[in-house]
């Protein structure tokens, strides 16, 4: 494989640093903690790390509100700590992608502090300012993803500023040339420091209709539509605008100055998400890859998976998708998709969580594995007074926010706070009891653990070109089976998933001439409940996987 192409089919391990490992006992994960635990990531044999924001920030949105793009927040450490992490990662053959939050800053950023003070400031137009409507109300009906109007009044300018997320996250005006240059300088700063690319935050929100036209009225959804719910509105003018392509082209042109550096865009869940992935990644002067959390809007049944596979194949033909089933913004897939999920969020069924891992790691494209997914962690169920996510605080109890997927990594079953933080302080979010039993140390000891399963599977994907970069084709299988093939250089791999809680015989045509590979497979021609088989022609060389 060409070095420049390392990202095609790569697996990235997503680190949410606040919850990964705390070295200094303040209850908040940090870069030194990440350094101490980096061998856990290396042992997964992933290709790289996507590190969520560690920049100086008032932490209203836990780092996605950047106050200084080129400094590390003291709660995470220092630039020297960052360099140590980068060096340790590179020594272990791991690439490092950092978050580039290009659409907005914190209101504490000096650019915004100056911009809001005066219309004469050098950065006056680096944010999106608009005069009020004649009656004094906001200039249009745009809504914030996190609730309420997307406009906030600034008395000093007697104008509103736009914020797609929190009011303390003012939207940057990337159509202003100097503002875009400043963002590119930030990107250059990190590339010069040695990072291998960026995860680009919320790229559907990078630009907006310059005339600031209101969105059309919300779809009537069988009665009254809650006027403030972003998810139920149409978004013709506030997001997904063609002008964003020019911004992305500039970012790509910069990346191309650094051999091997890549971009991973985050695409919103709005309708057409896969078409947008194709559009954002479908040309060599645009992004390398992009992911969307859209699939999580659906259930986990056979027709949905068949549609997902069709989307995957179609998107691969036009661009390059990356798969993310769990991350810091959504309920963990082990719970969200769990069969027989209950009001309490369902129990994590080891067999089912492994099936999810197998699917994530075998769909065509690249993949993001979110910290704890390799352990099969379920969503943490938190009480109202434990919630820290402003999004959850606004919408509780209909939506409990994102903290259930952001609780600390459980490292050691028997230790206080499961070894996430030295014992004298409590972590910023609790460690759920259900996670303790799934802690890393216990899974290290168990040769049959989910962690060991994940390692074997990732190692196999690395070794097997058909799995990493091969084409995909659906398989016509009887219910409740679902499957597809992957093929590269004449080598075909067959993947079969049993979506039911009962053992199912493998169809005869699959068994003939095939063998389970690397410890995965059906025994005696039967696929166990939620089982997964990975089959190769019997003549093929079967690599030894530890
Ligand atoms: O689909 C969406 C809106 O239509 C959302 O998923 C949206 O794309 C997402 O909320 C953007 O998330 C990213 O930016 C946020 C931050 O809070 C998230 O943590 C980050 O992943 C604002 O920076």
Explain this structure to me?
- This protein has 546 residues and is α/β, with parallel strands linked by helices.
- The protein has helices at 31-36, 38-42, 79-91, 110-117, 177-193, 244-255, 273-281, 302-318, 333-336, 350-360, 390-395, 433-436, 440-445, 450-463, 465-469, 508-511; strands spanning 11-15, 48-51, 55-56, 68-72, 95-100, 129-130, 151-154, 159-162, 197-200, 262-267, 289-292, 322-324, 366-370, 471-474, 481-488, 491-498, 504-505, 514-516, 526-527, 532-537.
- It has two domains: 3-106 and 176-454, Glycosidases (TIM Barrel), CATH 3.20.20; 470-537, Golgi alpha-mannosidase II (Immunoglobulin-like, Sandwich), CATH 2.60.40.
- An eight-stranded parallel sheet has the order 11-10-9-5-2-1-13-12, covered by helices on one side. It has a five-stranded antiparallel sheet with strand order 14-15-16-20-18.
- Strand 7 and strand 8 form a beta hairpin.
- 49% of the residues are buried.
- Residues 541-546 have low confidence and may be disordered.
- Bound molecules: 6-O-alpha-D-glucopyranosyl-D-fructose.
- The site of 6-O-alpha-D-glucopyranosyl-D-fructose has 14 residues, from loops.
């Amino acid at each position: 494989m060409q070095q420049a192409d390392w990202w095609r089919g790569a697996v990235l391990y997503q680190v949410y640093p606040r919850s990964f490992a705390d070295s200094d006992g303040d209850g908040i994960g940090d870069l030194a903690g990440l350094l101490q635990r980096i061998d856990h990531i290396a042992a997964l044999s992933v290709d790289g790390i996507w590190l969520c924001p560690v920049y100086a920030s008032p932490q209203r949105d836990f780092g996605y509100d950047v106050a200084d793009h080129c400094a590390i927040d003291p709660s995470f450490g220092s630039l020297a700590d960052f360099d140590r992490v980068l060096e340790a990662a590179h020594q272990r053959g791991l690439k490092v992608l950092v978050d580039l939050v290009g659409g907005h800053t914190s209101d504490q950023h000096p650019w915004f502090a100056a911009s809001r003070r005066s219309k004469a400031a050098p950065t006056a137009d680096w944010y999106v300012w608009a005069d009020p409507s004649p009656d004094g109300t906001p200039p249009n009906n745009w809504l914030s993803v996190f609730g309420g109007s997307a406009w906030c009044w600034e008395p000093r300018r007697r104008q509103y500023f736009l914020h797609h997320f929190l009011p303390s996250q003012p939207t940057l005006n990337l159509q202003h040339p100097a503002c875009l240059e400043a963002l590119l300088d930030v990107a250059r700063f990190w590339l010069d420091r040695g990072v291998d690319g960026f995860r680009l935050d919320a790229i559907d929100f990078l630009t907006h209709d310059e005339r600031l036209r209101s969105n059309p009225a919300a779809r009537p959804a069988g009665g009254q539509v809650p006027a403030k719910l972003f998810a139920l509105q149409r978004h013709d003018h506030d997001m997904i605008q063609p002008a964003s392509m020019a911004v992305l082209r500039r970012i790509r042109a910069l990346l191309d100055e650094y051999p091997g550096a890549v971009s991973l865009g985050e695409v919103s869940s709005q309708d057409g998400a896969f078409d947008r992935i194709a559009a954002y990644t479908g040309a060599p002067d645009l992004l390398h890859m992009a992911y969307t959390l859209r699939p999580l809007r659906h259930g986990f049944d056979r027709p949905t998976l068949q549609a997902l596979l069709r989307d995957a194949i179609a998107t691969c033909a036009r661009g390059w998708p990356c798969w993310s089933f769990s991350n810091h913004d959504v309920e963990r897939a082990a719970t969200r998709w769990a069969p027989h999920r209950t009001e309490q969020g369902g129990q994590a069924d080891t067999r089912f969580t492994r099936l999810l891992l197998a699917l994530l790691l075998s769909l065509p494209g690249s993949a993001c594995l979110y910290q704890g997914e390799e352990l099969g962690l379920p969503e943490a169920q938190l009480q109202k007074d434990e919630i820290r996510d402003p999004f959850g605080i606004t919408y509780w109890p209909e939506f409990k926010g994102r903290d259930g997927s952001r609780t600390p990594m459980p490292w050691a079953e028997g230790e206080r706070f499961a070894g996430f933080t030295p014992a004298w302080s409590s972590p910023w979010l609790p460690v759920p009891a259900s996670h303790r039993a799934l802690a890393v140390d216990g899974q290290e000891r168990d040769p049959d653990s989910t962690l060991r399963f994940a390692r074997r599977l990732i190692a196999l994907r690395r070794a097997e070109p058909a799995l990493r970069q091969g084409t995909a084709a659906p398989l016509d299988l009887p219910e409740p089976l679902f499957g597809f093939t992957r093929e590269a250089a004449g080598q075909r791999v067959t993947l079969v998933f049993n979506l039911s809680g009962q053992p199912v015989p493998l169809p005869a045509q699959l068994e003939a001439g095939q063998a389970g590979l690397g410890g995965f497979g059906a025994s005696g021609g039967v696929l166990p409940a939620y089982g997964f088989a990975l089959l190769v022609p019997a003549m093929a060389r079967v690599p030894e996987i530890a």
